[in-house]
């Protein structure tokens, strides 16, 4: 009585065409491009720099490990680095645990 009947539409919706589909996905495409330039590309650049630093490690370099330990490189092997943290005290760590290469003479100034 008080509620009118609801009927389904009998006509088909118009085809949005190429521009309609493109405008539907445009925000998604733009977000992906922005995320690439703000997050993915800088991360790849950082990974390349870290890999180059690990390959360039040599005896006598002063480094900081992921745990915050400072030391001087005594020996470099394929996957491991021996670090002298104090006179006569050496530690063996993985190469990927070395996070920073310090300038020469930094350990003496500390």
Textual characterization of the structure:
The chain is of the alpha+beta class. It is 39% helix and 26% strand. The protein is built from two helices and five strands, in the order αβββββα. The longest helix is centred in the N-terminal third of the chain and has 39 residues, at 17-55. It is rod-shaped and about 95 Å long.
Concise account of the structure shown:
Helices cover 39% and strands 26% of the residues. With 110 residues, the protein is α+β, with helices and mostly antiparallel strands.
Give the uncertain stretches in residue-range form. none
Largest sheet: 5 strands, antiparallel
Helix content: 25-40%
Strand content: 25-35%
What radius of gyration results from the CA coordinates? 30 Å
Shape summary: rod-shaped
**N-to-C span:** 89 Å
By oligomeric state, this entry counts as: single chain
Order of helices and strands: HEEEEEH
Strand order of the largest sheet: 4-3-2-1-5
What integer is the average pLDDT?
89
Structural classification: alpha+beta
How many strand segments?
Answer: 5
Number of helices: 2
Subcellular location: Cell membrane
Transmembrane segments: 20-40
Protein name: Sec translocon accessory complex subunit YajC
Main location: membrane
């Amino acid at each position: 009585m008080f509620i009118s009947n609801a009927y389904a539409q009998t006509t088909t919706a118009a085809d949005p065409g190429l521009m309609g589909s493109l405008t539907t996905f445009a925000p998604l495409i733009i977000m992906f491009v922005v995320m690439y330039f703000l997050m993915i590309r800088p991360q790849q650049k950082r990974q390349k720099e870290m890999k180059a630093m690990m390959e360039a490690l040599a005896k006598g370099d002063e480094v900081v490990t992921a745990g915050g330990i400072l030391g001087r490189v005594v020996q470099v092997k394929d996957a491991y680095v021996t670090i002298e943290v104090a006179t006569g005290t050496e530690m063996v760590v993985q190469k990927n645990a070395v996070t920073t290469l310090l300038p020469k003479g930094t350990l003496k100034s500390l």
